[in-house]
């Protein structure tokens, strides 16, 4: 009887493991972090796929005499992304939030996410470099 109980517990345990998912923290730009002069669209394509509940970590220095300000905006749709139109965009990271451990953004929904630097009316976005999109796919055990 005890062996049946142990077997049942093992079945329940392994069944519960299959429903777990593991999220990753992904540093945007890898060692380049979030800075002007790096192509984040290429970076996103090389690092895909992204999964629901993964965290994107934006790391950037606060502005100073040698570092221009950067921010992180979540643009509302593809047209806004393509045109670098910040109207209706959500500020997710101010110019001072990327220091230290960085700003963490969790990909909670399975939908396109469009990110861009919005400083100086989106100049860094308009030059085509400081913007990228990701479309997280369903939770998956990955690591």
Keywords:
single chain, alpha+beta, Immunoglobulin-like, 4-stranded antiparallel sheet, 7 strands, 27% helix, globular, electron transfer activity, signal, Cupredoxin, Phytocyanin_dom
Number of domains: 1
Q: What's the count of strands? A: 7
Helix content: 25-40%
Largest sheet: 4 strands, antiparallel
| Rough outline | globular
Return Rg in Å.
19 Å
The CATH class: Mainly Beta
The parts where pLDDT drops under 50 for at least 5 residues are: 5-19
- Beta content: 15-25%
Structural class, please?
A: alpha+beta
Number of helices: 4
Look at the structure and give the mean pLDDT.
Answer: 87
Fold-level CATH name: Immunoglobulin-like
The H/E string reads: HEHEEHEEEHE
Strand order of the largest sheet: 4-3-6-7
- CATH H-level superfamily title: Cupredoxins -  blue copper proteins
Distance between the termini: 38 Å
Commentary on this structure:
Residues 1-23 form the signal peptide. Keywords: Signal. It is a single chain. With 143 residues, the chain is of the alpha+beta class. It has one domain: Sandwich (Immunoglobulin-like). The protein is 27% helix and 19% strand. It is globular, with a radius of gyration of 19 Å.
At a glance:
The chain is α+β, with helices and mostly antiparallel strands and 143 residues long. It is 27% helix and 19% strand.
Show the helix and strand layout.
Layout: H1 2-18, E1 25-27, H2 40-47, E2 55-58, E3 72-75, H3 78-83, E4 90-93, E5 103-106, E6 113-116, H4 119-126, E7 131-134
Parallel strand pairs: 1-2
Antiparallel strand pairs: 2-5, 3-4, 3-6, 6-7
């Amino acid at each position: 009887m005890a062996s049946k109980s142990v077997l049942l517990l093992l079945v329940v345990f392994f069944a519960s493991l299959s429903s777990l998912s593991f999220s990753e923290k992904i540093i945007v730009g890898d060692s380049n972090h979030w800075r002007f002069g790096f192509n984040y669209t290429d970076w996103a394509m090389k690092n895909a796929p992204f999964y629901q509940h993964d965290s994107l970590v934006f790391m950037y220095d606060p502005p100073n005499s040698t570092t221009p300000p950067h921010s992180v905006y979540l643009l509302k749709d593809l047209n806004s992304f393509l045109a670098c139109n910040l109207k209706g965009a959500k500020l997710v990271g101010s110019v001072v939030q990327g220091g230290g451990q960085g700003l963490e953004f969790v990909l909670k929904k399975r939908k396109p996410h469009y990110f861009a630097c919005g400083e100086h009316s989106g100049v860094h976005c308009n030059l085509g470099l400081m913007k990228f999109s990701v479309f997280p796919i369903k939770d998956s055990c990955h690591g």
